[in-house]
Design brief:
- By secondary structure, this protein is an alpha+beta fold.
- Helices cover about 25% and strands about 25% of the residues.
- Strands 6, 7, 8, 9 and 10 form a five-stranded mixed β-sheet that branches. A three-stranded antiparallel β-sheet has the order 4-3-5, covered by helices on one side.
- A hairpin with a 5-residue loop joins strand 3 and strand 4.
- The longest helix is centred in the middle third of the chain and has 13 residues.
- The relative contact order is 0.18.
Length: about 220
């Protein structure tokens, strides 16, 4: 069996064996989530772009239901340090690898969407324009809104590389949003998309909500 790729060929067994060697580092990334480990959980799909010699040229968080940027960024950092066996033919290649984390379930999580969230995002989203362009295409975001109304955890994923300075700015900005969608004793989770080009606060662009189901 082999991993489907665009150029070179990767054996699934080789990929799994190499990733297993770095399992402790991968697992430790969840510690970056801090207190969000009480509720943030989900699957992170990593895309490895590998050079012909087996070293990782880049690693993307292609999809994520985890919703914690610190843990997601840690996975990227760990992935970039991994050296795989050279692909057959010595050609660059890419493949996807899923990682899943489970929370301690100390705080109940409710998924939300609808008018209330849309209203909050229509007000706050233009603030992200000050961070600069986040990626060459739209970015998926997940926020966990704590009982006090502020996002306690934010996650980002995209099919393109994120500008890390812009991503840090976006995450910190979102954490300062006082959301109206809050519930005592619960954490509320919302998913939405950040456009490639964000309108300023004077514009009327509205975000597109994405439904998110708990697994």
């Amino acid at each position: 069996m082999h991993v489907d790729t665009e150029l070179g060929v990767r054996e699934t067994e080789d990929v799994q064996a190499t990733m297993q060697e770095h399992f402790d580092d991968i697992r430790a990334c969840y510690g970056r989530a801090g207190k969000a480990q009480r509720y943030a959980e989900g699957r992170v799909l990593l895309r490895f772009n590998v050079k012909g010699d087996g070293t990782a040229e880049d690693v993307l968080v292609l999809e994520s239901t985890l919703g914690n940027y610190e843990a997601e960024r840690c996975l990227v950092e760990v992935g970039r340090r991994i050296a795989f066996h050279a692909p057959l033919g010595g050609k660059p290649t890419n493949f996807e690898y899923p990682v899943e984390f489970r929370s301690t379930n100390q705080v109940p999580v409710l998924d939300i969407d609808g008018v209330k969230v849309e209203h909050d995002l229509s007000i706050f989203l233009p603030q992200l324009a000050a961070c600069g362009q986040l990626a060459s295409e739209s970015v998926s975001a997940i926020v966990y809104i704590e009982p006090n109304g502020f996002p306690g955890s934010v996650g980002l994923s995209a099919k393109a590389s994120l500008d890390e300075d812009a991503a840090d700015c976006v995450v910190q900005t979102i954490r300062r949003w006082k959301m109206s969608a809050a519930l005592p004793g619960h954490v509320m989770r919302a998913s939405f998309r950040i456009p490639r080009v964000i309108a300023t606060a004077d514009a009327t662009r509205r975000p597109v909500l994405a439904r998110h189901r708990r697994r």
